[in-house]
Amino acid sequence: MRMKKIICFGDTITEMGLSLELRGYVARLAERYARRADVLCRGFSGYTTREALDILYSAVLSEHPDIVILFFGVNDSVLPNQVPHVPTEEYQSNLQEMASRIAWAGAWLIMINAPPLDEVKTSSRQMEHTSQYAQICHEVGLEMQVPVIDLFHLIQEEPNWQERCMLDGIHLTRVGMDILYEALIERLDKIKPLQKLPRLSVNGI
Known about the structure:
By secondary structure, this protein is α/β, with parallel strands linked by helices. The protein is built from 8 helices and 5 strands. The chain has a 5-stranded parallel β-sheet with strand order 2-1-3-4-5, sandwiched between helices. It is globular, with a radius of gyration of 17 Å.
């Protein structure tokens, strides 16, 4: 029996998704799908959709995934005078191209848009600017019929979200990771309910 593969492909937040201290969403997915699916982390600190597109095949598609969770935008959306800013038009084009390639590879896709940020703790980003990237991700999802986890608005539904959900104004705390994880498993179960994934066994054990 071939184990299903779920690949989490993103930037720093995805890389931090392996953190047990933060109850990282990737680590929790791996625990949830133990013996049912392999959950692979392809998180690259500092990457934008520009670099992601360049390594999409080697990091993701070469693994022949069944589901890809695509989470970029945090670095793309830094202000234009900052590195590694990616203009909105290019960000949109990169998302569209990656979504197309993933679909051609036969994998299900879930996208996550950029979370909000605490402007008090960062000078390289602004909420209004980041909201444009979050909206673009949402629109690409609608256009390409791909589900999008609207993390930008989900986080803001949490009382005192700046303190409770944002570790340093940009990255996620345990509470932020919890919000993302719960939204993901709800969407993943719509694609393939956990109970319908067979558990790998040897000699009936």
